[in-house]
Every structure is written in C-alpha cells, then in structure tokens.
User: What shape does this take?
Amino acid sequence: DVQLVESGGGSVQAGGSLRLSCVVSGYAYSDGYCLGWFRQDPGKEREGLATLWIGGATTTYADSVEGRFTISRDNAKNTLYLQMNSLILEDSAMYYCATYWAGWGTRGQGTQVTVS
Assistant: This one.
C-alpha cells in the first residue's frame, strides 16, 4: 500500500518561504497517475493546490497559488516537494500530499503551515 509522509511545515512571516516534502513509498499506478498537494483545516473545504503527472512533468495549480507555489519531485529520493514562496496569511492551513486520479486518494498525516 502507498504511504506518504509529509514534513517541512512550520511558522513563517508573511512574504516568506517554506518547502514541504513528502516521502512516498509503496506507490503503484493503481494508486493514481498523479501526486499532489491539498490543504484543509477542520470545518473548511479541501483546497487542491497542485498536482504532478507521474509519467511526465505535467503540473496543474490552483489559481490561488499559481506563480507562488511549485510542485516537483526527486525520483531518486521518492520525494514530492511543494516550494511555497510569497506566503500570505490565507496560506495558513494543514497541508497534505496525496495520490490523485479523478479525485484525491490516499493522503499523509499532514504538516501544519502557519503564516503570521
């Protein structure tokens, strides 16, 4: 079974940057053809942020983060990244990496990002 473990969250001032990491293990194409990041806080709707096509380099971004966030991966390290620049207060949330194919699938435990 696929497992995803996020890290890299923390507290940062507005305008700052963070890089989230997600180590992926046990992944199979049956888990979906994309990996990505979404954020969600209790009582709020899930917001998909970015996805990356496993078979190539195609990426998608939500309007709210395009130009500020970059999704990437290091195949040698089995790690997915989310580089977040120009952070704003509204970016504060729990961030999750997950499989994605016609909807979000298995996710990690999340990493908290707080912008002040």
About this structure: Residues 4 and 31 are 12 Å apart (CA to CA). The radius of gyration is 13 Å.
